[in-house]
Write a structure and sequence with these properties.
The complex is a heterodimer of chains A (620) and B (292).
Chain A lengths: L8 H30 L5 H25 L9 H19 L3 H23 L4 H21 L1 H4 L5 E2 L9 H24 L1 H11 L1 H6 L4 H27 L1 E2 L10 H10 L6 H17 L3 H18 L7 H16 L17 H6 L13 E12 L2 E12 L3 E5 L6 H8 L7 E6 L2 E2 L5 H7 L1 E4 L11 H12 L15 H10 L15 H14 L4 E5 L7 H17 L3 E5 L3 H7 L2 E6 L2 E6 L1 H5 L2 H16 L2
Parallel strand pairs in A: 5-10, 5-11, 8-9, 9-10
Antiparallel strand pairs in A: 1-2, 3-4, 3-6, 6-7, 11-12
Helix pairs in contact in A: 1-2, 2-7, 2-10, 2-11, 2-12, 3-4, 3-10, 4-5, 4-10, 7-10, 8-10, 8-18, 11-12, 12-13, 18-19, 18-20
Chain B lengths: L2 H32 L6 H19 L1 H26 L9 H23 L13 E4 L2 E4 H23 L1 H11 L1 H6 L4 H23 L9 H16 L4 H20 L7 H15 L11
Antiparallel strand pairs in B: 1-2
Helix pairs in contact in B: 1-5, 1-8, 1-9, 1-10, 2-3, 2-4, 2-8, 2-9, 3-8, 5-6, 6-8, 9-10, 9-11, 10-11
The chains are: A alpha/beta (620), B mainly alpha (292).
């Protein structure tokens, strides 16, 4: 069933396209020469020059797309690193007589160094505020270059002279093409690697990415620096064919180019921006010479068209493509029945799930305390959401936390997994103090979590959801090489089958029904091979049948694999059939704890729930 | 620096702050209610500046300017309405990336349009309030003082609109919880259009008021947008008080930065250093509230 190397029509098409693009790039100079012979008005030199500029633009835009398309970051400072690259070559040459080739080698590192310093600042904010901070950084760098007349030449720019070997346009073209090709190869390896998978996870869902053990901020900073590095190369190459760097290269509006080029070619395919670059250069040359202002309008219209015509936004393109491909395939394989993806949970295969190697078997010494919570409190202003909560979860236990709405259950979970920092108190897990640690650290110590609100990667396939969780948990996410989609493939497939989603492993998770997405949510928390699994209302929104099946899996996993469970749940039948220990919370405090039998007969507990009932009856 | 000079530069800073506040307040109001950063805000400002200059120069500096101002505000309000209906309505609730790119596309279209209609040359208009007032040996342009007064009037007006009218109450409710507001029967779609029209009108008003004090060119859109961003970020997006404080800081930094020889070339850079510093210490700005 599972093919190791998927050789689909789409794959062949993609590689065919790469080949065509490669050949196209290779034949531009001879074609230009031919064209000049046929049509004396068309200067070969100029056309090769345009080709060179398209190559550099392609490199710049693809480096931008590492952030835009792969990580979901909008930066207004990328042009600044491009400019820094160009100025590195120019100023080293002008002021220190450093050969331009040496300057070109230095450019990416200078750009990356500036990227590191400014990136550390930009990282202080997220999303929108990150974008605005990059804008400030960009303008800062621009005004430094623009105003430092003595050093940079201000608005006169800074010029270089090329070595004799590179003055020939064709040679320069192939020289540029070779460097661009190497850079693209490096970036391509990166986006397919586990590191690339971590970036996609961040783009898809920051909270889930952290909960599978990815240090979101560090990865965002890393890709910001890597993108700056390649922008530096692009800037260095820019000055080779322009022989001039000027301050406007750094102005924030200059970022329009990589943005438009990425959108034009497509942000979700690696080489999309390269194709966009060639289209852009041709359009620019054809239109902007005669109608410079109309060109702006056309660019605006293109961006607007892409942004508005693709429902769900730029990063939704894969779903759109997937849907189109699906339609295409459905038309082709009309006889193959397409089953509804809904309610797959009924296919939960418990035995398979237990055999799944992804779920770790741990040597368990029952009675040992795995998680201990000591006097934990969380106050929001005057509200004491969690107040002086102490409890212990024994290894191998199935521990339920119950309580009426507002009892502080979800807040307690958020304190345990690092989404919130406690006001006071201590949390010790497996002998380690994890109080107030960030989510990704806690995830890596071995706490998996299923959230109450489904928190998955909607545009990744079901299998990728599980694969990427396994990659992150296994500590592979730092690897910038290897092919992420081929790692843990069998294990993820096995786990997907175990939770009844094997048949839909290749569908984007977001296309499945609510119940199935809950199953993915639970599967992700299991995929982490965690010692402790936290389930926050695992069966919320499931049908009675789905609930039974899901809890049967959870129960048997816990017994036979000695998983430790901590869960909160409103459905009392689930609680009493699954839990061995029950803790009752009320108004942020622990009311009582005991076996399900003790809790069932505890008058205080009855009062709490009855009290709530009375209030509800009174219409409060 | 003598006290006289100090006052001179302070008034310069205040008049900078005046038009910047008007523009930034519009940006911030829109963000507060719609959760959208309008990248075309500066473009709307630029349209208004050109419209005012053209009309004032046609009809004469006095009445022509005031007529131009009114037309400019009406035109930009209408353009705001068109942008909201055609573009923004389709990006609410989407990723901020889509919103940034969508309004950015609008700014490109407007930039091209303005250059086609008005050309790329600098334009100026004679001040409708000529003359100056002399205090302590320095003279202050009457128009600068008018700008400061206008900003104060607008600040009071925006405050009254937000806290003394039904519309304002709905806007504040939209900032707090749009879903709940919808459930109470308020037409949120129409409310959003109204807010955006007001925001665009404020950008237009800023552009019209600034016209006599600056040379108007087709690059003032990004110049003002960047400053309005800096102000909003310093003050906190969505906060009108924050816009006021932010505008004061930025206006003063530019005014004093430009006159101190050592800092002259880097006056603008200081604005961004302050912006960065504020964001590091308070990631949501001085008066910003955490995003829900």
């Amino acid at each position: 069933m599972t093919r190791l190397l998927p050789r689909s029509r789409g794959d062949r098409l993609r590689w065919g396209l790469v080949l065509v693009l490669f050949l196209f790039v290779a034949v531009i100079p001879p074609l230009a020469g031919l064209n000049e012979n046929l049509n004396p008005d068309a200067s070969a030199r100029f056309q090769i020059f345009l080709g060179t500029s398209a190559l550099v633009l392609a490199l710049w835009a693809i480096s931008y797309n590492l952030m835009l398309g792969y990580t979901g970051m909008v930066s207004f400072a990328h042009a600044a690193y491009y400019g820094v690259g160009a100025y590195t070559v120019a100023l080293l040459f002008k002021r220190y007589n450093v050969p331009v080739l040496v300057g070109l080698a230095a450019a990416p590192f200078v750009a990356a160094a500036v990227g590191l310093i400014t990136g550390l600042v930009a990282q202080r904010a997220v999303r929108l505020y990150f974008s605005l901070l990059t804008l400030a950084i960009s303008q800062l760098l621009f005004s430094l270059v623009y105003q430092s007349y003595d050093i940079t030449g201000g608005d006169n720019g800074a010029a270089i002279t090329l070595p004799d070997q590179l003055t020939d346009y064709t040679t320069l073209y192939y020289f540029t093409a070779a460097i661009v090709a190497v850079c693209l190869l490096l970036m391509f390896v990166l986006v397919r690697s586990p590191l690339g998978a971590a970036l996609l996870s961040i783009r898809e869902n920051r909270q889930r990415a952290a909960a599978i053990g990815i240090n979101v901020k560090v990865y965002e900073l890393a890709i910001y620096i890597i993108a700056s590095l390649f922008a530096g190369v692009a800037g260095g190459l820019f000055i080779f064919y322009q022989q001039q760097a000027y301050p406007e290269m750094l102005y924030w509006t200059a970022n329009a180019q990589p943005v438009v080029v990425s959108l034009l070619g497509g942000t979700t395919t690696f080489l999309g921006p390269a194709i966009g670059a060639f289209i852009y250069v041709v359009l620019d040359n054809a239109i902007s010479k005669q109608f410079p202002y109309q060109f702006d309008i056309i660019l605006g219209a293109i961006v607007l068209g892409v942004v508005l015509a693709v429902p769900g936004g730029v990063s939704d393109l894969p779903t759109v493509f997937a849907r189109m491909r699906e339609r295409f395939h459905r038309a082709e394989e009309a006889e193959a029945p397409v089953e509804s993806a809904g309610e797959a949970i009924r296919m939960f295969d418990v035995r398979k799930a237990l055999a799944s190697e992804a779920i770790q078997a741990e040597e368990v010494h029952s009675g040992k305390t795995l998680l201990s919570i000591e006097h934990l409190s969380k106050h929001f202003g005057g509200l004491r959401a969690v107040e002086d909560v102490s409890l212990e979860v024994k290894q191998g236990d199935r521990h339920a936390i119950i309580g009426p709405n507002g009892a502080g259950k979800s807040t307690l979970f958020n304190l345990l997994t690092g989404q919130l920092k406690p006001t006071s108190g201590k949390v010790v897990f497996d002998g380690r103090d994890i109080t107030g640690k960030p989510p990704h650290v806690i995830a890596r110590t071995g706490i998996g979590r299923a959230f109450q609100i489904t928190t998955i990667f909607p545009k990744l396939t079901v299998r990728q959801n599980l694969q990427y969780a396994m990659l992150a948990h296994g500590g592979y996410s730092v690897r910038p090489f290897g092919i992420a989609n081929r790692m843990f493939r069998a294990e993820a497939q096995e786990l997907a089958e175990a939770v009844g989603l094997g048949a839909w492993a290749d569908l984007p998770a977001g296309q499945l029904s609510h119940g199935d997405q809950r199953a993915i949510e639970i599967a992700i928390s299991l995929a982490l091979g965690s010692k402790l699994v936290l389930l926050d209302e695992p069966t919320a929104g499931m049908s009675a049948y789905e609930t039974d099946k899901a809890m049967e899996l959870v129960r048997r996993l816990a017994t036979e694999r000695h998983l430790t469970l901590l869960f909160c749940e409103h459905d009392m039948s689930v609680v009493f059939s699954t839990a061995r220990t029950v803790t009752v919370m009320h108004q942020g405090r622990v009311l009582t704890a005991g076996t399900p039998e003790q809790i069932r007969h505890n008058p205080d507990v009855q009062k709490v729930y009855l009290g709530e009932l009375e209030q509800e009856e009174l219409g409060a | 620096m003598t006290p006289g000079q100090l006052l001179l530069f302070a008034v310069g800073g205040l008049s900078n702050a005046a038009y910047l506040f008007i523009v930034a307040a519009g940006l911030s109001l829109v963000f507060g209610a719609l959760r959208v950063i309008n990248m075309a805000h500066g473009s709307i400002y630029m349209i208004a500046a050109f419209v005012t200059v053209v009309i004032a120069n046609q009809l004469g500096a006095g009445l022509g300017f005031w007529g131009g101002l009114l037309v400019a505000v009406a035109v930009t309000g209408a353009i705001g309405g068109i942008i909201e209906v055609l573009v923004l309505r389709r990006v609410y609730g989407r990723e901020h990336l889509v919103q940034l790119l969508g309004t950015y596309a609008v700014s490109l279209v407007i930039a091209g349009g303005v250059r086609i209609v008005f050309g790329a040359n600098y334009r100026t208009v004679v001040s409708p309030i000529p003359g100056h007032i002399d205090v302590g040996g320095y003279s202050y342009a009457s128009y600068s003082l008018f700008m400061i007064a206008a900003a104060i009037v607008i600040a009071v007006g925006v405050w009254a609109m937000l806290y003394r009218t039904n519309l304002g109450r709905n806007i504040r409710a939209a900032v707090a919880d749009p879903d709940l507001l919808n459930a109470t029967g308020v037409d949120v779609t129409r409310l959003y259009t109204t807010v955006f029209v007001i925001g665009a009108g404020l950008a237009g008003l800023g552009g019209a008021i600034v016209a006599p004090s600056q040379a108007i060119s087709s690059s003032i859109d990004t110049d003002v947008l960047v400053l309005a961003f800096a102000i909003s970020v310093i003050g906190g997006l969505g906060s009108i008080v924050g816009s006021g404080i932010g505008a004061l800081i930025v206006g003063m930094v530019i005014s004093f930065g430009l006159v101190i020889p050592a800092t002259n070339p880097y006056a603008l850079a200081f604005v961004f250093i302050i912006m960065t510093a504020v964001l590091i210490v308070r990631p949501r700005g001085l008066f910003g509230r955490p995003e829900s």
